[in-house]
Design goal:
The complex is a heterodimer.
Chain A (H helix, E strand, L loop, with lengths): L5 H7 L15 E5 L9 E6 L11 H7 L3 E5 L2 E2 L2 E7 L14 H19 L2 E7 L6 E4 L3 H12 L8 H10 L6 E6 L5 H11 L5 E7 L2 H5 L5 E6 L4 E5 H25 L4 E4 L3 H10 L1
Parallel strand pairs in A: 5-6, 5-8, 8-9, 9-12
Antiparallel strand pairs in A: 1-4, 2-3, 6-7, 10-11
Chain B lengths: L1 E2 L13 H11 L2 E5 L3 H37 L1 E3 L9 E8 L7 E2 L2 E2 H14 L6 E7 L12 H10 L9 H13 L6 E7 L18 E6 L6 E9 L9 E9 L3 E9 L2 E10 L4 E7 L10 E7 L10 E7 L6 E5 L10 H9 L11 E5 L13 E7 L6 H10 L3 E6 L9 H6 L2 E5 L9 E2 L23 E5 L4 E5 L5 E8 L2 E6 L15 H12 L8 E2 L1 E3 L4 E4 L9 E5 L5 E5 L4 E4 L6 E6 L5 E7 L18 E3 L4 H10 L1 E2 L1 H18 L13 H21 L6 E2 L2 E3 L11 H12 L3 E2 L4 E3 L11 E6 L8 H12 L3 E6 L7 H13 L6 E2 L27 E5 L2 E7 L23 H20 L6 H13 L3
Parallel strand pairs in B: 4-7, 4-8, 8-9, 9-35, 17-18, 17-19, 19-20, 20-26, 28-34, 37-39, 38-40, 41-42, 42-45
Antiparallel strand pairs in B: 1-3, 3-36, 5-6, 10-11, 11-14, 12-13, 12-15, 15-16, 16-27, 21-23, 22-24, 24-25, 25-26, 29-32, 30-31, 30-33, 33-34, 43-44, 44-45
Helix pairs in contact in B: 2-11, 3-4
């Protein structure tokens, strides 16, 4: 896969994805439910009683014990994981000598998709903003290829209001699914938080991965600048005067996100390029 | 505001550079793409106002910096005169009026003003022209351009005079002179006066264009003066009184007047004068010395104040003589009623019909010798007939010497009896025939016959009469109806004679009973007095001529001798009965002495009408007032202006500091610190160090440097010795030594770099100028030490004399004395028992002290010669073959050097014990 190389795969092998909230008993997947049904995990042998499915008979046990036993599996459900990938213009920002944030986000998205599919869940991709189509959620290994292809086809495009776009995406999401938002969350803080709240409504499980560039956090510029935003707009300012205030505003915004999401019980992690370290943090909570 | 180099103002547009640069920089700002501008926009909008303000202030500071530098380069000059060109044309006007004689703190204002002017002259540059003249009421000498020396001489020659002040002619003359000077020259007029209001009686003329007019301003001084002395209104010959008017200005004064006549104090009075008002006092004078010509001449002195010249007034007054009359009666029965004497007694007796003011003594004519004729002013012969022997001659002599004789013939007189009198009287009495006229009339209209119209002169009848033949030159005052002269008066020598034609006794005429009799008698008596004896005050003013005119009835001499107040006598010719003394230059009494002994005294006083004595300063003079001690500074400020370049530079410095502060980063530096404030600070520090380093070049720090004075031809007898001395010094002591010796002259600035100065000599050097002596004195007073050494080692010669003389000139307060054997000089490093040198071992060191320490050391023992070596390294001088002496000379050199560096600390008590012990233990 283009967006997930074997090294990363190896690192991610240990990760699993276990949403806390109940997923919908949509289909059989890896996740426990109380409802019994066919699943991959052996639960117990039960004596056959008429009416059970014939294919559930364990013939090896009959050969041994000369009685008919039915194999009972834990009934597991499949979770639909929707990856909301922020493809707004700001994701195209690349600090000096680094890969653009979008690439980092795509790698993270690919990793998450792989984790889900490897668990047997469904994974889908919904780009927020940007140009390119999404991918409906499907399970199965061949879906990864499509995932990868869609990721490669995505491009950033300026999106004025990230919050509105997130909310719009939220409308299309089914309830009782898992959502991972991969975004830089740069925009109107309140609006974005509102959108995130929307996303986690209707019993959806939300995870947020914030992708940043160190330059956005540190603002290491000086001198008089004419700053052109990737989302549009330009400003002329004196970097020396503005840097400390910007850093402070950025820290406040970060703190706002962190505290709001923690209060809401939403797993939250930020990555400044090293997403392989952020993902376990995100999934571990 | 003017500028001394206005060309620099063309650089003013450079002040727009910072704004231009700012605009261009903004355009060329770096582009940077960033992800999201939300936060940045919020931050920027918050910071924008402050950033804008800071930007604006920075721009303003930079623009101000450039502006101030340009202004400083243009050299702003405040209050200067417009012409900034070549040279100065200066006119000095020295006030020589008598008000400048006022003394303050022991110095006359004239001297202070003149000294201020002469100090100003010293400040002139070579291209300047000066015209100096003294002025009082007019300019006293013509104003012409000369140089500073000529103007100084002109000022030196001036002396305060005795006239008033009028600044107008002087200022006009100055303006005329300056208006002819070429354009481009600065013009200035300085009025060296006392700035009193009386200088500007009339309005001052306009100054010449661009001319700066300065004047001195003295603090107000109260003054009182005598303004007028005249006879009091009720003064008469018998009760002479003098009225003295005094005035005061500035403060009320209590005036006390003393009247002096000759050497005697004749009277005293006091009066109080309010400031600005006049007061008068009346003083009684003693009776006149000569009753026939009562005149008083003397001076009135008040207490001298700041201006003493106006506190003395002179007076010379004359009154009509009212001398005593002597009535010599020939008739033995003169006292019988109806006799002439009886009528006269009534006149003089003080009773009804008496003539007040005249007194008479009555004597029988036969006893005329008992009377002293000179005590009387008039002799009356009321009934002249045959006179005793000698009386006529005596009377003639009496009349010639100035007395008056009134002759009325007696009833029984015959013309032959009266012949001796007729010989010299102004009219001859001869027999007249009846019928005698009746009535009299006045033949002349004069003050004596004034008011006679009210009398019935026609009723006067005569029973007996003589015929009067008036002599030529005699005047007929009363005549009969037909024109017969009845009363004739004329001059007799210096006196006068009056003759009445008819006897007075009642048998001969009824005149004595008529109401006109007292008036007639008074008229006759007044005719016996000299015409010129009117009440008058003979006064003149300083500077004006004194004129003595002889009236018709006075004999005029050919020459008179004028005695001036200083005692000198000068002969003046009399032309046309007039003698003129051209100009009375000083106040006092001028006496016109005639050959016969008659003397007329004139009093010459200062002229108070000009208000010269009022020393109130002018309220708004037409010149810039300056204090006399600060005239030079005020002059420099007014003419050359105050150089405000420093103001502009200070402004520039301020702007630079403001710009540096504003350009500092607003918050503590981030990862890449802003380097420009550090760079700027570094540049500033470097500049400061460079500036400080320049004078440091001459400093030697704490090293001893042998400094030798180059004076005369033999100043360097041993060129290599100082290096060796310095080397040994560094070796033996802990002093740091500079190896190179320094040779300086007295005018070098490096004189003050080393506390030790050495002067050697063989032949006499040139004499030191005043400036050099001053520098040397400064050097010594500042802690320097001078070692003069006579290198000849022989007997005292030219250098020795020069050295002693020069030492006396440099330190006039101290004398060159030999140092005592226990002087600290012998103990400062080595402990020596006395002086030692290569040439002589016996002569002591001599020192001249400045305060506690020896500032100049003079030795004749050639200590430095002990160090000299030849090319082989062998000693040059043998020092008498005694190596120990050489050693001692070397040690003495070191001691002297250590004294110059450390002073007398070895004399402190803490060292004494050790020193004494070592001296005691030393083998020598």
């Amino acid at each position: 896969m283009r967006w997930l190389d074997p090294a990363d795969q190896a690192r991610l092998k240990a990760l699993g994805f276990a949403p806390r909230r109940l997923a919908s008993p949509l289909a059989a997947g890896t996740h426990r439910t109380l409802a019994r049904g066919f699943s991959r995990e052996f639960s117990q042998y039960r004596a056959y009683s008429p009416g059970d499915e014939a294919r559930a008979i364990d013939w090896k046990a009959y050969a041994r014990f000369d009685r008919w036993y039915v194999r009972e599996h834990r009934s597991e459900d499949r979770v639909r994981l929707s990856v909301l990938l922020d493809a707004s213009g700001s994701m195209g920002f690349a600090g000096a000598g680094r890969a653009p944030k979008f690439d980092v986000a795509r790698r993270a998205a690919a990793a998450l998709g792989w984790i889900a599919i490897a668990q047997g869940d469904e994974a889908g991709l919904i780009p927020v903003g940007g140009a390119g189509a999404g991918l409906p959620a499907r399970a199965g290994a061949p879906h990864l290829g499509a995932f990868d292809a869609v990721l490669s086809a995505l491009e950033c495009a300026p999106e004025a209001d990230l919050g509105a776009a997130l909310e719009a995406a939220a409308e299309r999401l089914p309830p009782r699914s898992a959502v991972v938002v991969i975004s830089d969350l740069l925009g109107d803080t309140a609006r974005i938080l509102k959108a995130l709240r929307r996303l986690s409504a209707r019993r959806r499980e939300l995870l947020v991965l914030r992708v940043l560039d160190p330059d956005e956090r540190d603002f290491p510029y000086d001198g008089a600048l004419v700053v052109e935003g990737l989302e549009g707009g330009r400003l002329s300012l004196d970097a020396n005067a503005a840097a400390p205030a910007y850093r402070e505003a950025f820290a406040r915004q970060e703190e706002a996100y962190r505290s709001a999401l923690r209060r809401a019980g939403v797993p939250y992690a930020t990555t400044a390029g090293d997403w392989t370290a952020a993902l376990p943090r995100l999934l571990a909570t | 505001m003017n500028f001394s180099s206005p060309l620099a103002l063309w650089a003013l547009p450079a002040a727009a550079l910072p704004a231009l640069i700012h605009l261009l920089a903004r355009r060329a700002a770096r582009r940077q793409s960033f992800s999201d501008l939300t936060l940045l926009a919020a931050v920027e909008s918050r910071l924008r106002p402050r950033a804008r303000l800071r930007e604006f202030l920075l721009l303003a500071a930079r623009t101000l910096l450039i502006l101030a530098l340009v202004l400083a380069a243009a050299g702003p000059v405040a209050r200067g005169s417009a012409a900034a060109g070549s040279g100065l044309d200066l006119v000095l006007l020295l006030d020589a009026s008598y008000s400048t004689r006022a003394r303050e703190a022991g110095r006359a204002r004239f001297d202070r003003a003149r000294d201020a002017g002469r100090r100003l002259l010293k400040r002139l540059a070579p291209g300047d022209r000066v015209a100096a003249a003294a002025f009082d009421e007019a300019v006293l000498s013509p104003l012409e351009w000369s140089d500073a020396a000529g103007a100084d001489a002109a000022l030196e020659r001036a002396a305060p005079g005795l006239r008033g002040t009028d600044a107008r002619p002087a200022l006009t003359a100055a303006r005329d002179l300056l208006s002819r000077s070429p354009r481009g020259r600065r013009r200035a007029v300085v009025v060296l006066g006392d700035g009193a209001a009386h200088m500007l009686r009339s309005s001052a003329p306009q100054a010449a264009d661009g001319a700066v007019v300065l004047g001195l301003r003295f603090p107000p001084l109260a003054n009182q003066w005598i303004s007028d002395i005249r006879p009091a209104p009720d003064s008469s010959a018998r009760a002479p009184r003098l009225e003295v008017r005094a005035a005061a200005a500035g403060a009320p004064a209590r005036a006390a007047f003393d009247v002096w006549i000759g050497e005697r104090r004749a009277g005293f009075a006091s009066a109080a004068a309010a400031a600005g008002a006049e007061t008068s006092a009346v003083i009684a004078l003693p009776p006149a010395e000569n009753p026939r010509a009562p005149a008083w001449a003397g001076r009135v002195a008040a207490r001298p104040d700041a201006l003493p010249d106006d506190d003395v007034g002179y007076f010379s007054i004359r009154h009509r003589a009212e001398p005593r009359a002597l009535v010599l009666a020939s008739d033995p029965s003169a006292d019988r009623a109806g006799r002439a004497v009886w009528f006269l007694r009534k006149l003089f007796g003080g009773g009804e019909g008496s003539i007040a003011g005249r007194e008479a003594d009555f004597l029988a004519a036969a006893r005329w010798k008992e009377a002293d004729l000179s005590a009387y002013g008039t002799v009356i012969l009321p009934d002249a007939s045959r006179l005793p022997a000698g009386l006529s001659t005596a009377l003639e002599r009496f009349a010639s010497s100035g007395g008056g004789v009134w002759v009325v013939p007696g009833a029984d007189a015959r013309p032959d009896d009266l012949a001796p009198l007729s010989a010299w009287l102004p009219a001859r009495l001869s027999a007249a025939a009846a019928p005698f006229p009746r009535g009299i009339r006045a033949a002349r209209a004069a003050s004596e016959t004034e008011g006679w119209d009210s009398y019935e002169l026609a009723r006067v009848a005569f029973a007996r009469m003589f015929r009067l033949e008036p002599a030529p030159g005699a005047e007929v005052w009363l005549a009969g109806p037909g024109g017969e002269p009845l009363l004739a008066a004329g001059a007799v020598g210096r006196g006068r004679g009056v003759v009445w034609a008819a006897p007075l006794d009642v048998d001969s005429s009824n005149l004595g009973l008529k109401p006109v009799f007292p008036a007639w008698a008074k008229a006759c008596l007044s005719l016996t007095l000299p015409r010129a004896g009117a009440d008058e005050s003979l006064q003149s003013r300083v500077g004006r001529p004194i004129v003595r005119v002889w009236s018709a009835d006075e004999p005029a001499p050919d020459r008179v001798t004028v005695r001036a107040p200083d005692g000198r006598r000068t002969a003046v010719a009399v032309r046309g009965r007039r003698a003129e003394w051209p100009s009375a230059d000083e106040p006092g009494l001028y006496a016109f002495e005639e050959p016969g002994g008659l003397q007329t005294t004139f009093a010459v006083n200062l002229d108070p009408s000009r208000g010269e004595s009022d020393l109130t300063p002018a309220a708004s003079p037409p010149w810039i007032p300056a204090d006399p001690d600060a005239l030079e500074d005020a002059f420099a400020t007014a003419v050359y202006g105050v150089d405000e370049r420093w103001l502009a530079l200070a402004l520039a410095a301020l702007a630079l500091v403001a710009e540096s502060l504003l350009a500092l980063p607003v918050a503590p530096a981030g990862r890449r610190a802003d380097a420009s404030p550090d760079a700027r600070a570094a540049v500033l520090v470097t500049l400061l160090l460079a500036a400080a380093a320049a004078p440091c070049a001459a400093q030697q720090g704490d090293r001893f440097v042998w400094t030798q004075l180059r004076l005369g031809s033999d100043w360097d007898p041993y060129p290599d010795a100082p290096g060796r001395v310095a080397a040994w010094l560094g070796l033996v002591t802990s002093a740091e030594v500079g190896v190179e010796r320094r040779v300086i002259k007295l005018d070098d600035a490096e004189l003050f770099s080393s506390p030790f100065l050495y002067l050697a000599g063989g032949g006499p050097p040139p004499e030191l100028t005043d400036a050099q002596l001053r520098r040397l004195r400064q050097f010594l007073a500042g802690g320097g030490f001078l070692w003069i050494e006579d290198s000849t080692g022989g007997p005292r010669a030219g250098f020795d004399r020069w050295a002693r003389r020069t030492i006396g000139l440099v330190l006039p307060g101290s004398e060159l004395k030999p140092l005592p054997g226990d002087h600290v000089m012998y103990r400062t490093f080595f402990l020596l028992r006395g002086a030692a040198g290569c040439a002589r071992a016996d002569e002591p060191l001599e020192g001249a002290a400045l305060g506690e320490r020896v500032a100049i050391l003079y030795s004749r023992a050639d200590s430095l010669g002990a160090w000299a070596q030849d090319a082989f390294g062998r000693p040059l001088k043998s020092c008498g073959g005694d190596e120990s002496r050489r050693e001692r000379a070397k040690r003495l050199t070191l001691n002297v050097i250590m004294y110059s560096m450390t002073g007398s600390y070895k004399a402190d008590a803490v060292h004494q014990a050790m020193i004494l012990e070592k001296l005691g233990a030393a083998p020598r």
